[in-house]
Amino acid sequence: MTWHILDAGSIWIKEFAFALQSSEDVVAWAPRFSYAGALQTGIREREIPDPPLRVLEFPMQRGYARPPMSWVARLGERRMADLTRHTDSASPAILVCTTPFYAPVAEKWPGTVIYYLTDLTAKYDGIDSDQVRTLDRRMCRVAKLVCPNSQRIADYLVREAGCAAEKILVAPNAVRAQNLLSRPLDGPAPLPADVADLPRPIAGVIGNMAANLDWPLLEEAVKATPWLSWLFVGPVDMPMNDPGERRIRERMLKLGGRVRFTGARPYGELRNYARSFDVAVLPYLKKEPTFSGSSTRFYEHLAATRPILATRGFEELLHKEPLLRLVDSAEAAVRALEQLRSRSFHDALEEMRWKASRNETWETRAARMRSAIDSQVAVAR
After folding, report:
1. Fold assignment, 2-174+361-380
2. Nearest CA to 145 among 114, 106, 105?
3. Alpha carbon distance 318, 307 (integer Å)
4. Which of 49, 184, 194, 233 is deepest in the core (most CB within 10 A)?
5. What is the pLDDT of residues 27-85, one digit of tens each?
6. Where do you find CATH 3.40.50.2000 in the chain?
7. What is 177-357's CATH superfamily?
8. pLDDT digits (tens, 9 = 90+) for 239-276
9. In degrees, to the nearest 5, what angle opens at C-alpha 157 toward C-alphas 174 and 316?
């Protein structure tokens, strides 16, 4: 059976598609945005190396979701034509839609539809929340299976999109199976070559260094831990609307010394950084849509088995103790770091994290989704 993933633009959907293709025929689609997308035709095939995945890129009009551009873009008709050309009519196919804006495509699809929602889209800045809720309702009506990546998004879909609870399978983000360790680490792994000169101990932050991080907390924590190096792994060029937070990021970028920003690194290399930390820090700012989502970085750090500190910026993480330690302020973070320092950065939970990580892979997520859709289709028949 062919599974069409519409679309695989984000890294977490690429990871899901890569895991799924080990057992299913997968066609991964991704938009190619331009200001003349409504006038363009043709599908481009692209092989991405990390994860290894064949992606079909289709032209997409910028602003396609808002009238009158949505009428010009003709999203339903154009995407259906593309999908049909890449589907064997002799066998059934599953369409996995990853955003509410593909509702016009889902409603035209003759086979099984899965709604795989990895963000609380209705809470995005600049979005028309009423429009998104309407699209979510349409998606929930047509989908045989609805897979939000957090319980908080599931609750929203039931409460505000009228989704039947029996359709829902919560599918959190995950980690690559190949990133799992054969045994828990008894100490940090060697540092990657580009940061090998950074003195230990090291607190590490992985992710997009942008508005979903608590920059005031980070600045205070860095100032209060002169005995600790801080390593930030991820892009630093995403715009930030809050001028105060933007200034803090600019100040921290200039610190140098025991504070190091690597910039973006290939996704497949992030595990090497995660394993090398004395302690991982997840300093999320409590705001939407981050709060309602699922933390990909948590699962990467879980597999690395090193101690984890996290703020309460993800509702999902509020239920993960003792795999991590929650802190509410810079002062609490510093106290926790000092306690870890007194124990040589061993918290006696390494094996617990290692065992938990075995069931938190993209492969297990794909297997659960396959099983759930089989059950749903069987009940419908």
Report:
1. Rossmann fold (3.40.50)
2. 114
3. 16
4. 233
5. 999 988 777 656 667 788 999 999 999 999 988 766 656 665 554 445 667 777 778 77
6. 2-174+361-380, 177-357
7. Glycogen Phosphorylase B; (3.40.50.2000)
8. 998 999 999 999 999 999 999 999 999 999 999 999 99
9. 35
